[in-house]
């Protein structure tokens, strides 16, 4: 069986990304939602009319509606492989610690509905570590629905050490929309919320010293909206991303991202901790916020022993690193024996996924 025509899917809760392994030009991104037209049938699209209701399969990074998920997989597979009738293998990358039931339903769909030749399910964190050429490190992923810190040792994640919170890109955008109402600016409809998201990405930044900066904050950034109206953005620019470090700002009694990292490393073996502190891999769209790295280093340094200097690897593409990591995995000769082939699936059924795929 050839790995070259394998389809890789990064099942992100903001965007599902996919490609054929040896064809970077086949790379596709699809918002992880479907619209429900008035007729009642589902359709995926990049252009959403306000009259449609939007359906999301994810809650806090985990799939909660398999029917909607299936519609998104239908669409992304059409976009990537077109009408190609040949069988192909699939690597599905998902967030850590997925329920067994989800994994079983996924393998069942891929073999029985999409007729794949073989299947493998793996965590995005592991693939992103491979993509940095490492097998041991802590992957800190802050994307859309969830922020997770995942220590990985020799290529395998350690489930009891994973720490997560619900503050990520979607929470930041919601909070930004909320605090912009203080200035009399309202982002209500879906398209307006998309504009708010873009403003967040473009103008918000993580303050290096929040308590000091917020006290004397007096800049006012004018920004013209697509309808020609001009809004003034003030300290919302730093208050919004501060949520990553202080979830309590929205009443969430959860650790900030820096504390998640410390907690997950402290749950790892004592002799591994120093190495983990020096191999922190930052991934996910939200970690692209301006100023994020410097603030994170500052916070981690405050919380680690003096003899340890935390080091972060922020080098590669943050959006497609799962796909790139999967391409590397496919190139490893020993991976060939890790595929769940159809014959194995036919013999053992969907539960085989929980025996084979736990990385
Ligand atoms: N430059 C940027 N600055 C701030 N946020 C950004 C930037 N680019 C993307 N984002 C945010 O990153 C999020 C999407 O990240 P990503 O593509 O990693 O998510 P995902 O993989 O689909 O979701 P998840 O892994 O959480 O299920 C969105 O909330 C988006 O607004
Ligand atoms: Mg992701």
TrEMBL record:
InterPro entries in alphabetical order: Actin (IPR004000)
Family statement: Belongs to the actin family.
Protein name: Actin
Top-rank lineage group of the source organism: Eukaryota
């Amino acid at each position: 069986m050839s790995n070259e025509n394998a389809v890789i899917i990064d099942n992100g809760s903001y965007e599902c990304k996919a490609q054929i392994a040896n064809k970077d030009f086949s790379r596709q991104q699809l918002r992880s939602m479907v619209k429900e037209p008035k007729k009642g049938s589902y359709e995926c699209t990049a252009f959403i009319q306000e009259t449609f209701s939007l359906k999301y399969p994810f809650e806090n990074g985990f799939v909660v509606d398999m029917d909607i998920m299936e519609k998104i997989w239908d669409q992304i597979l059409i976009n990537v492989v077109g009408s190609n009738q040949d069988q192909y293998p699939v690597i599905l990358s998902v967030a850590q610690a997925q329920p067994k039931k989800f994994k079983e339903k996924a393998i069942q769909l891929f073999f029985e509905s999409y007729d794949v030749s073989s299947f493998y399910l793996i965590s995005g964190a592991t693939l992103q570590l491979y993509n940095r050429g490492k097998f041991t490190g802590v992957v800190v992923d802050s994307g859309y629905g969830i922020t997770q810190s995942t220590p990985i040792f020799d290529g395998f994640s350690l489930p009891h050490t994973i720490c997560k919170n619900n503050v990520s890109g979607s929470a930041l955008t919601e909070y930004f929309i909320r605090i912009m109402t203080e200035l009399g600016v309202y982002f209500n409809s879906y398209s307006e919320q998309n504009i708010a998201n873009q403003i967040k990405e473009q103008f918000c930044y993580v303050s290096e010293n929040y308590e000091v900066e917020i006290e004397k904050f007096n800049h006012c950034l004018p920004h013209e909206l697509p309808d020609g109206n001009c809004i003034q953005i003030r300290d919302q620019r730093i208050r919004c991303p501060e949520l990553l470090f202080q979830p309590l700002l929205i009443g969430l009694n959860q650790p900030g991202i820096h504390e998640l990292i410390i907690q997950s490393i402290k749950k790892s073996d004592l002799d591994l901790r120093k190495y983990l502190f020096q191999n922190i891999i930052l991934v996910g769209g939200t970690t692209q916020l301006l100023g994020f790295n410097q603030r994170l280093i500052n916070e981690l340094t405050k919380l680690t022993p003096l003899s340890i200097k935390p080091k972060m690897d922020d080098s590669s593409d943050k959006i497609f690193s799962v796909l790139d990591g999967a391409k590397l995995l496919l190139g490893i000769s020993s991976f060939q024996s890790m595929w769940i082939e159809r014959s194995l699936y036919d013999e053992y059924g969907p539960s085989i996924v929980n025996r084979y795929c736990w990385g």
